[in-house]
Design a protein that fits this description.
Blueprint: E1 2-3, H1 7-10, H2 16-19, H3 33-44, H4 48-53, H5 62-73, E2 78-84, E3 92-104, E4 107-122, E5 125-139, E6 147-150, E7 154-156, E8 160-167, E9 177-183, E10 192-193, E11 196-197, E12 202-208, E13 214-224, E14 227-238
Parallel strand pairs: 7-14
Antiparallel strand pairs: 1-10, 2-3, 3-4, 4-5, 5-14, 6-8, 8-12, 9-11, 9-13, 13-14
Length: 241
Amino acid sequence: MLNFNLFRNIGFPLYLFVYLILPYSAITQTLKIDFIRNLETSLNKRDLEFIRKNFRNDENQNIPKQFSKIINDFPDSKWKIKRLESYIPNKEILRISVSGRKIVNGEMHILESDFDYVFSVLNGKIDEATIKNLFTTIRNDNNKIDISFKIPEKVLTGSKYDIDIILNKPLEEVIITGAIKAHQVNSLFEQEILLEPLASGGIFKMTRAPSKPGIQIWSGIIAHPEGMITFTKSIDIVDKI
């Protein structure tokens, strides 16, 4: 059995999802380009004082601490932020991308994470913020593994849907292992995952969405002779599409 906590020591922080949920941020009543630019700059310059000043009092101690953990895991991580046209009434959307590299035991581990940050502005502060369309990978294979992730962005409550992680190159005699598991954010550290041989050339799973709207999270691992890939994907569970 592999415990998610162990990945901290080998450069696979699947708990990155927790770090990236930043629930409150000070901001002008109208979202301005200057704020987005300043936020991006502060993240890239590791300006924790800017973050402390721009987060609500109940969060300005926790968020710098969580942000510091990302920097510790990937010291050279780069952040890019852009505003998206909102399709949700009274909501703003930022597309946030995080990338980073880290050498562990002589191997280069590469982080790529993209997600949409959806929030409303109330009294000059970001309120009711949620993460959508999160997809994070950390891999040390130098992109040698030809892999496709077919995981939906959103599904209806109670509906069946497929999750396919496909190794596109024929395996021949290569033996790979892997696993995938759903989890709740608060229980991420407590869960274990058992790696199993993947004779079919990937992970193919049919599952059913929860009966209530919300966000479902899947994390998984592919272990291949060329390297290892971990991934985390959020799925929006909705009652209508």
